[in-house]
Amino acid sequence: MTIYSLKIKDSKMMANMNVMTDDSKRVTTNLVYLLKRFMDEWNEKNLCRLHYPGFNHAHLPVFMSIGTSGISNNELADKLNVTKQATSKIVKELEAINMVRSEKSQTDARSAMLLLTNEGEKYYQYLSTKINQLEEQHKKLVGTKNYEIAIDVMLKLIHFHEQQCKGED
After folding, report:
1. How many domains is the chain partitioned into structurally?
2. How far apart, in whole angstroms, are the C-alpha atoms of residue 56 and residue 46?
3. Is there a smaller number of Cβ atoms within 10 Å at the N or the C end of the chain?
4. What is the CATH number of the domain that holds 29?
């Protein structure tokens, strides 16, 4: 059995947390599940409900991927590794709350570009600031070098699983 002591500096989370774990609690799938659950909760509480009640955490990856320069629905689906139908559904929801608009692509008449509205751009800047603040808290907690290593490891694991899903080795 290993004992880990984490000091979290965000008073809203927990000031001090002692985590007692054994090998079964260090299983990657459990850790990913817990991190996702807590991140979803943080996103919902800190990003989604404050200014736009219609905006929920399911909108977040699509909205942030559209970004300030815009993107086509095909590119968006590819970027998020989901179907065009899935992105279209969320884009329609974002259009309904005046966060996103679509306009005919200037380079491809068959395609539409997804762009943020003025309200969407303001909200994007707000979200970016809040996300950067959270990342800074993470860096203070584990150190910048460890944080960057963790990001690199996650990117490699994502790439590995993308290749596995495609049937490549």
Report:
1. 1
2. 11
3. C
4. 1.10.10.10
Segment 45-77, tens digit of pLDDT: 888 766 677 888 889 999 999 999 999 999 999
In a domain, 8, yes or no: no
Contact (CB, 8 A) for 124 and 64: yes
Q: Name, in order, each residue with C-beta under 8 angstroms of 145's C-beta and a sequence gap of 6 or more.
A: none
The whole model's pTM is what?
0.74
Mean pLDDT, the chain, rounded, equals 84
Residue 99, C-beta contacts closer than 8 angstroms, at least 6 positions apart: 52, 55, 59, 63, 116, 117, 119, 120, 123
Q: Which residues contact 162 (CB under 8 A, 6 or more apart)?
A: 81
CA-based R_g, the chain, Å = 19
As a whole number of angstroms, the distance between CA 124 and CA 69 comes to 12
Look at residue 13 and tell me if it is in a domain.
no
Asked whether residue 2 is domain-assigned, the answer is no
Q: Is residue 75 part of a domain?
A: yes
Enclosing domain of residue 113:
25-165
Alpha helices in the chain (DSSP H): 28-43, 60-66, 73-80, 84-96, 118-142, 144-165
